[in-house]
User: What shape does this take?
Amino acid sequence: MPTIRNVFSSLAARRRRALSRAVHRGWRWVRETGAVTADRPGALRFGRIGEGTRLAFPQGTVFGERWIELGAHCVIGEQVTLTAGLMPDLDLGPDPILTLGDGVVLGRGSHVVADTRVTIGPDTYCGPYVYITSTNHSYDDPHEPVGRQWPRMEPVAIGPGCWIGTGAVILPGATLGRNVVVAAGAVVRGTVPDHTVVAGAPARAVRRWAPEQGWQPPMRTPAPVPIPADATPEQLLALAESAVTEDPPTE
Assistant: This one.
């Protein structure tokens, strides 16, 4: 026969499980309700927010929304900062300051700080904690604290189809071409040509693609096999399972 202590312990465990389920259900409801979309912008009044775009809850710091334009089907992670202008409530003129193309992804905790023009091309993916800024403090006076010196601003342009790795920093004046890869933790300034992979701080080109030579230096792994257009989900799953289970080649 169960003891009173066991009965109370069992009741407490059930209460904890019920409370845990309630907390998780409540948090899912809060995240869903607090997300920002074109249909449910909440208090944010963007210059444009495209169909299918979603800012996850909780949002980071957002101001100057009137000068921020978000394309369609963008994914903005939690705690992402999007700002236009040095501070809230400034009149920045008739033109947008920060523009995201269609299908842009900004990972959790990323910051896009646009005090002058910043454009991110369509289908550019940013990992978590990426920092993109058009502003940097100057250091003209060696006797004045750097944080008190008036910042310098230069436009930033990121081309379509780029991949920017976790923790990368894109500095004022940077121009990235089409399908550029920025390695995790890289610090980018200046111009990066199309189809270039950069890494390091400051970032330097480590691989480039050209129509005549292909990738230089060559890739160390074989190119992936294209997925057949008529493949069914079951066939794709079978292919993935066979790739995981087959023995590695021997030399």
Observations:
- Residues 109 and 129 are 5 Å apart (CA to CA).
